[in-house]
Specification:
The chain is built from eleven helices and no strands. It is 79% helix and 0% strand. The chain has two domains: 152 residues, no CATH class; 100 residues, Receptor-associated Protein. Helix 4 packs across helix 5. With 302 residues, the chain is mainly alpha-helical. The protein starts with a helix and ends with a helix. The longest helix has 56 residues.
Length: 302
């Protein structure tokens, strides 16, 4: 009887907490304001895909999630999401506020699912499992975002020396930097690095200097080799050094660093394979001589 009262009390407390959470969110009307970056892209005539927050059916509930996100003022988390949204290319055009709302919704649904499954399977509620699944539901979208941004940064790192070579060759044949970049973007518009170069050209067309636009790209893409290349380009402009030569030299240096890194990895691979090889050898010895050792222990060998 005592345990039943505890279960009823915990269930009532959780139900009341969820009700107050939903009530506090729906109490205030969410203004239908499109994030500034999507307003800008639509004003420029770009064809941006609609997100979940643009669907009329889901707007009331997602508007409540936006209100929760507005009250979730953790600056380090917001900076983390902003950085990885930029590095991933943000294909869905989410704002930081919207992505925090997605995290909060996933956390809420994970908590509700944990409650339902606990009563259906265990016939009782385990607070530890509930808290664990709620936390995992919140951090799940963050892990997915980081994975997407890391994969895109790796693709840009692989493509970087070849793109620099192409730009250097075209500039050596008489093209300007903007003309060379425009040609490369036109040939492969879906390439990740070409998309970043397209943003650089868009910033230049809107009035920014080329150095500022390149530095903004270095901020979006946390790649040390890209930052060193952009620093070399800006220094070449200030000193009057031919930019095509700088780009080809930087591409050669990147290839050299990549080959050195590959040699280091191949040298360390042999050491990493030593332990599995030893274990396999021990297993083979046991397999071959194990029956003989067992017979010798039983006195059946001779």
């Amino acid at each position: 009887m005592h345990e039943l009262l505890i279960q009823l009390g915990v269930t009532g407390y959780l139900g009341l907490s969820i009700f107050l959470l939903v009530f506090s969110a729906f109490r205030y009307r969410q203004n239908d304001v499109v994030p500034i970056h999507r307003q800008f892209t639509r004003a420029m005539g770009a064809n941006t895909p609609k997100t979940l927050f643009d669907q009329p059916v889901l707007k009331p509930f997602l508007g409540a999630a936006i209100i929760w996100a507005q009250r979730f003022q953790v600056l380090s988390l917001r900076d983390y999401i902003r950085q990885h949204l930029d590095a991933s290319g943000n294909p869905n055009n989410y704002s930081v506020q919207e992505y925090i709302a997605i995290c909060l919704l996933c956390s809420l649904f994970s908590g509700i699912s944990a409650i339902v499954l606990s009563f259906l399977v265990l016939m009782s509620l385990n607070p530890i499992i509930l808290a664990l699944l709620t936390v995992l539901g919140f951090f799940g979208p963050l892990f997915a975002l980081k994975s997407a941004s890391d994969a895109r940064v790796r693709r840009i790192s692989k493509q970087l020396p070849y793109t620099l070579d192409l730009i250097g060759l075209m500039m050596g044949s008489g093209s300007t930097f903007n003309e060379a970049v425009t040609t490369i973007i036109r040939d492969q518009p879906d390439d990740d690095f070409n998309q970043e170069l397209a943003l650089v050209l868009a910033e230049v067309d809107l009035g920014s200097s080329r150095g500022t636009a390149l530095r903004n790209m270095a901020i979006r893409i946390p790649l040390e080799s890209l930052r060193s290349i952009i620093g070399a380009i800006n220094q070449a402009e200030s000193l009057g050094t031919p930019l095509s030569t700088i780009l080809r030299n930087q591409a050669d240096m990147m290839r050299m660093h990549r080959s050195v890194r590959a040699e280091k990895l191949s040298a360390s691979a042999s050491l990493r394979l030593m332990l599995p090889n030893v274990l396999i050898l021990v297993a083979v010895v046991i397999f071959l001589f194990g029956p003989m050792i067992i017979k010798w222990q039983r006195g059946e060998l001779f």
